Amino acid sequence: MIDTLRLTAEEAKRQLEAGEISGAELFAAYLEAIGVRDEELHAYLHVCADPGGDGLPIAVKDVIGTKGVPTTAGSKMLEHYVPVYDATVVERCKAHGLRVLGKTNTDEFAMGSSTENSAFGPSHNPWDPTRVPGGSGGGSAAAVSGGLAPWALGSDTGGSIKQPAALCGNVGLRPTYGTVSRYGVVAFASSLDQVGPVAKNVRDCAYLYSIISGRDANDSTTVDVPVVELPAGDSLKGLRIGVPKEMNEAEGIEPGVSAAVRVAIEHAASLGAEVGECSLPRSVEYGVACYYLVAPAEASSNLARYDGARYGLRSPGDDFREMVMNTRHDGFGDEPKRRIMIGTYALSSGYYDAYYGKAQRVRTIIRREHDAVFEQFDLIVSPTSPTVAFELGAKVHDPIAMYLNDVLTIPSCMAGLPGLNIPCGLSEGLPVGLQLIGPQFSENTLFRAGHALEQALAFDVVPARLR
Amino acid sequence: MARITREEVLQVARLARLELTDEEVGRFQEQLSDILEAVSKVSELDLSDVPPTAHPLEIANAWAEDVPHPSLSLDDAFANAPERQDDHFKVPPA
Amino acid sequence: MSTTTTWEAVIGLEIHVQLKTQTKMFCRCRNYFGDRPNTNVCPVCLAFPGALPVPNRRAIEETIKLGLALDCTIAERAVFHRKNYFYPDLPKAYQISQYDEPLCAKGALVVPAADGDVTIRITRAHLEEDAAKNVHVAVSGRLHGATATLVDFNRGGTPLVEIVTEPDIHDAETAKRFLQLLRQTVVELDLSDAELEKGSMRFDVNVSVRPAGSDELRTRTELKNMNSFNFAAKGIEREIARQIQIYEAGGEVQQETLHFVPGDEESPPSRSKEEAQDYRYFPEPDLVPVHPPDELIDRLRGEIGELPGARIRRIADTLSFYDADVLVTGGLDRLWSALVAAGADAKEAANVLANQFVATGISPDAVDAVELAQLVTARSEIPRGTFDEALAKVGDEGFSAAPYLEQKVVADAGALDPVIERIIEANPAQAEQYRSGKEGLIGFFVGQVMKETGGRADPRVVNERVRAKLSA
């Protein structure tokens, strides 16, 4: 009897190789779990048939292109779109023998923090289905925590892997910008988007990262990466950990979240880490404003190709212009429309310098502040999300309240830095996530620290109500 | 304070080819004004001698050799096309 | 009631040249004209979700080479920008182009002219991708006038170099010569076929006028779709005249775009007032900057050689400007130089090439210059017919001038006099008529002598000796 709630990818791999389970049995176990629980969780938009073989199954966020399998980006615009090519990350997974289980739900075009912007209905948090799983990658997080996939691919622009991982109690990595190919991934904000692993533990996360990462000839913004080391130790001796004042004392952080994070930091110290305070004076204060200028600006241009001409939804029109305007009215939900308009405004003649131009300079400030901190520390830590999972519907009508969910994940994204979320405790019965952020290309340090802490914290990733 | 006017909403919608109903124009005008006010925070900083960051990584000269790779078959090119006429993509007149 | 103002035209050009690389600018689909529609396409040039651009290294190098040929400064750091607008031939709804950090800037092209060279400054030359091809069609079975637009993306993504000049041109003829020289430069560097009918070279012209001597810049109009250089000269001239007429009548020239009909020089252009477009340029986040290495620039510079403009100037030191111009623009000057190096007289060689050789249609590259030089040198010594025969074969493999040179023209009076005397004696009536005033009959006697000598007599000497004998 395969316990998909508890089974890690590493353990599944061991069992397959030892002949204890067959590839078909494994895939079938997930299909069965999906049949039982996905009606409640709505993690999946599309479930695949077993393609055969005995590779590990994997769920894929629906902004990542899968050949022959619908890829909707959570939008009516692409509701019936079936790619004729695989994203590079999918190609690499398949080359490793992995089998795609299905496509997971996402906020439309990856824009959101709760999956409530999905055109196909929100996903639900496995710890409490009346609450959101986070977003935009809430589907992948819900699938992993809900025992509907051993691991998943997500995408992160301002926190879309890390924040759902925090809210659902699993491990998510936002990699260093440029270490994972974006080819074949529906673009949101080109200078911020990164595909990353979502898993039950740090070792699985590291292993999946090693499969998908590395320079891709089809993506000229990618680079070679250091060899990934699967973490094994339990000591943090010699590791200098910074605690940025502004990220740990920001307005809006729930007391329960602060408390759980403080406990985790104390564990780190007892494992031998040297913990000290540091400061990111402007990164947190100006990060959200900066992000909500840069990302929508790039998005307004990236989403311009959705015009009903060559694929996707087409609405009627007497001439080309009318057809395009109607298609884009009908195909996009409110959030993409808002971001397209803000982005267009920020780039428009007369406003560029004050908005987009300015935001790109703030970005430099954020980068410099982080660089300065990393001269004294190997990592910095903070809560990933200021709150635990909130109730469905609680913030839907307040875009800015929704944006503030990302206040702690955004700054490091702007600087292209990697960040790892590990669950570090509960607050009111709901998971709290700890965010570890390092300099560019420091994934191995993040894995090492995350793994040691994970062992010490011994957080049970299976949602209490499902045990 | 940074508020967006109704005309600006219409102008931006036109640039972005977004058809909007009257109700939508009004609603978005409110929301966009709130967002604009929040993001205008960046103007508090004096950044005249700070260069912009267009790329998180300092890389340059990424390019490929001028060697052809296989193109898509016609079937694949048109697999998701809303309208096709012979070997062309068909759209309403421009 | 017009004042007698003298007017000066102010003309600037914007030229687009398609590079003839193997593949497109940002993807590796074939860059090829004439294939079945939509067969040279991929997710990138169709702008499928998730597609990303990857620059063509050769296109970047060729743009730099063109910039160097135009005496431009090559940027230390060049950036691609997105130019955003919606149109069916633009699948991403943005064109990847360059904005304020182009690859090449601040150059010049010197246009040689008989009455003094004209230096036209090049503002910039940058690299971008071409749009796809729209075809507007009528849809049968629908309401009268209903149409659709069909799109072929084969051309979409072709590498395009855009060259912009300062408004340094002041007449239509110079504009035409500039375009011809630019075209020849681009073709010689093997960067493009630059064929106006195929669209691998296109240009727009900006025209305004001002009182001669002033440096004001008045409203300009933009002329598009003139697809030959003669067409361009005509269109420019007419526009200059039109604008002068407006000002002299006290009016104001409106800023307009004039759309000509390609291939139709006579039809007046349609006019439109283009809305100022907001392209919302921003640096392309999917591409990283280009920092051209010094070694690359040096290598490319070394590959350039002497350009047509410089060759006209150099050769005009030896020949007339006109001859130099004809040779270089006719693609004959390299052969000419080789002939001179092989010992032929400069002016003779120029003469032969520009007149007789050109008529043969033989490719200059097929000619062995050493052999042709001998032919040129011996031109007055061999019969005209022999010379023409030899010239017709001069492109053949292994051509040798020797056999033709043996057929020397007979110019020795001593050899010709006996023949002439015999013919005069055999034609007493004509001789009598000539002596009594019918000078035209000289042709008859010369003709007879040429026939008698099988065409090998030197006609000048025959003419001289016949006159001498008849007058004796």
Task: Report what the structure shows.
- The complex is a heterotrimer of chains A (467), B (94) and C (472).
- Chain A is 37% helix and 13% strand.
- Chain A is an alpha/beta fold and 467 residues long.
- Chain A folds into two domains: 356 residues, Amidase signature (AS) domain (Amidase signature (AS) enzymes); 77 residues, no CATH class.
- In chain A, strands 1-3-2-4-6-5-10-11-9-7-8 form an eleven-stranded mixed β-sheet, sandwiched between helices.
- In chain A, strand 10 and strand 11 form a beta hairpin.
- Chain A starts with 8 loop residues before the first helix and ends in a 10-residue tail after the last helix.
- The model of chain A has no long low-confidence stretch (mean pLDDT 97).
- Chain B has a domain of 44 residues: Glu-tRNAGln amidotransferase C subunit, N-terminal domain (Histone, subunit A, Orthogonal Bundle), CATH 1.10.20.
- A two-stranded antiparallel sheet of chain B has the order 1-2.
- The mean pLDDT of chain B is 94.
- By secondary structure, chain B is mainly alpha-helical.
- Chain B has three helices and two strands; from the N terminus they run H-H-H-E-E.
- Chain B starts with 5 loop residues before the first helix and ends with a strand.
- In chain B, 35% of the residues lie in helices and 6% in strands.
- In chain B, a hairpin with a 2-residue loop joins strand 1 and strand 2.
- With 472 residues, chain C is of the alpha+beta class.
- Chain C has three domains: 290 residues, no CATH class; 74 residues, no CATH class; 59 residues, Arc Repressor Mutant, subunit A (Orthogonal Bundle), CATH 1.10.10.
- A nine-stranded mixed β-sheet of chain C has the order 2-5-6-9-1-10-11-12-13. Chain C has a three-stranded antiparallel β-sheet with strand order 4-3-14, with no helix packed on it.
- The longest helix of chain C is centred in the middle third of the chain and has 20 residues.
- The mean pLDDT of chain C is 92.
- Classes of the chains: A alpha/beta (467), B mainly alpha (94), C alpha+beta (472).
- At the A-C interface, helix 9 and helix 10 of A face loops of C.
